[in-house]
What we know:
Keywords: Coiled coil. This protein is of the alpha+beta class.
Amino acid sequence: MERKIYKEIPGGKSSFHSxxxxxxxxxxxxxxxxxLRTLKEKWITSINVxxxxxxxxxxxxxxxxxxxxxxxxxxxxxxxxxxxxxPKINFFxxxxxxxxxxxxGNLTPGGHGKNHEVFSGFYANSVDKTELPLLLELWEYVIxxxxxxxxxxxxxxxxxxxxxxxxxxxxxxxxxxxxxxxxSLDAALLYNEKDSDIYHQLSDLIPTNNIxxxxxxxxxxxxxxxxxxxxxxxxxxxxxxxxxxxxKGLPPTQMEADERITFYDFNETTRGKVRINxxxxxxxxxxxxxxxxxxxxxxxLTGSVNATLAGMGSPSSPxxxxxxxxxxxxxxxxxxxxxxxxxxxxxxxxxxAFPRKDCYGENPTVTDxxxxxxxxxxxxxxxxxxxxxxxxxxxxxxxxxxLTAFGQNGxxxxxxxxxxxxxxxxxxxxxxxxxxxxxxxxxCAFVSVSxxxxxxxxxxxxxxxxxxxxxxxNLRTIREIIGKVEAGQFNELEIADYLTQxxxxxxxxxxxxxxxxxxxxxxxxxxxxxxxLSYDEAIAASRDTSVxxxxxxxxxxxxxxxxxxxxxxxxxxxxxxxxxEEEEEASATESKERKVENTVDNGIKLGNDIMRxxxxxxxxxxxxxxxxxxxxxxxxxVIGIVDYLRFLLSSHAITAICHFNEYMxxxxxxxxxxxxxxxxxxxxxxxxxAILSILKQFTLLHQRRKVAKYGENQDDLIFRHNDLxxxxxxHILLDAAIxxxxxxxxxxxVKERIILYCLNIFDQYGLPNAGLKAYLExxxxxxxxxxxxxxxxxxxxxxxxxxxDGTYKKxxxxxxxxxxSVQDGKYRxxxxxxxxxSFANKKDxxxxxx
Length: 850
């Protein structure tokens, strides 16, 4: 039966949160384009891929260009094996459910679509635990490989994910034993271990003398048929039927003829006649099936192992590969019929003329081509500017080398000299230039002075990004919001609602206000998950620059703003492309008119749905202004990155709800309605109140508190600070312009206050930089031209002119103020502190200009 594995996985909040996938070969672009998107749609966010190290070495830098999510939305690690790391496991973990699907298919287009593949699956939840023993054994098998790694990836699989499922236990497991699944069906897991292999496990579980016929459907064999000969010895009364596919795979072309072994054409079977498409293109046989039949029972082995000594082992030598299979036993089930091998088919008389073609790039008999490499890189973690490399030294090195970082196209981006190999971990601090997004490494390797690679290649885990995909329960609301934002399936009401929760009054306010005074309080904040910190906690924790680096990359506000900026870019680019196409078709004018067609002034019912945006905006404004006010009187508060992020998110959410979006409902009934235009007026009025309140409190904060300063070796924080500051200035000007241009002539006092707020902010930071125009054009395009950038730029000109006409001056204690008149040697001034006039001595007031 044809199945699309990832499409059929149960999805939703109550299903799975994590996936651990293992594969021999790995197609990065197929994974990011198809698999990753599907898993995210299923709410699976913690995704970990273990790949054969040799295959990963050959892929990185060659077929890993233009990837957007590698080791940011999912983690990839290479796994070393004596031969091939060959299991193909898809293990999905939920709070109280487990699902494992494993078999012959790699994480490639062929493995999950084009080839003939066979998979098996086990499932258990808190109610049905029939298959749980098999799942727990399989998880222990997976954990064994994760323990070979180190750092973040190992910790996440072995501890974080394991700790997020109620079904995992520390109970000692009995390995390689049959478990009854009901309906006369038993199953056992078979896999190669240090002291046990699949060949001997088969001999322990199957009554070897009772087997009459063995059917093997498989693409790869020893050239001399060594494993087939061993099976003839192990099962002395059995005849072997072997199904091959001509011109594909590695048949046993040099095997001597044996009257107990017959070869058949797989393409003549029911399954073999299934084609990829209507054109009749052949599928490659990549399934691995070993069927053992006695008079009373059938045994069916399937999984990753091929018919090779390297995969299965032999009586005298251990296997080279890591392999995983399941052995089913039944007295009533017809296994071969279920996979379409239900007829003998065409017999192959001479296989010696068959070519041995490894069409899939998967020759499991190939041994380690990297055996001469001296260093094994177990894992690499990058957090902020700190790069940590975990290694095992395989041979003594007496000459220096370099840890070299490579970009997506395999080009060297930077390197660090290595002289002392005695340590198991190397730690480096990246410079500001090395932190440039275009230079961040995709993978690293050790390189000799002569330029030879002397280690495996290992991808670099971006901890700041991966941490936000962790499966802890307290992160799931955050992941839900960010996931919707990244998928474009959100509205700003959800963001505003969540921000309001972040501005909550903390029960631990006393603890937070005395942050830094008590060591235990500081440690409590440090250890709490960065992403879930409230506003007060984030502000307090950010005073420690080591914690601030984590907040910059890991806090919910940082992730949300990055996601929104990505959406602005994507929408803007999409609209530009669309307009270009329409201009080419001479239809741009028609399209523009279509997009801004006149809104019918329908009635809107004044129900809960309509009042909700008003309530959300009011609540967000009130909570945010309250936090700003509290920060003004906190002597320990220093204005910085967290403040900019909160302003950007809060102001954008309020602006989008009140000005950019038009998604309000239009009920059919006509009772208790207001017109759409009246409704928009209500939103705009609310917007004016909200922005004036926020601008006032944000300006007062800058009058009463100082801006953060950073020391040496903090270039990454300086860069992020300046970038967010520039965006903050852009949005201050945008919000001010929207309100300013909506004011009636009879509201000059409000206009004065807007000018006053902007003058005070720009006096402290300077005018918005040259990127303003391009940013406004992008933002406008991304929001259906909800505002005109030229009006915002005109507002900036008006502010600059106000700073030069002598109407506004700078008072020593009150900042920029509006001068009304001079009385008795004193200026009569209006400041940001009050709408009423006050007086200031002339000596305390000076001219200024922006």
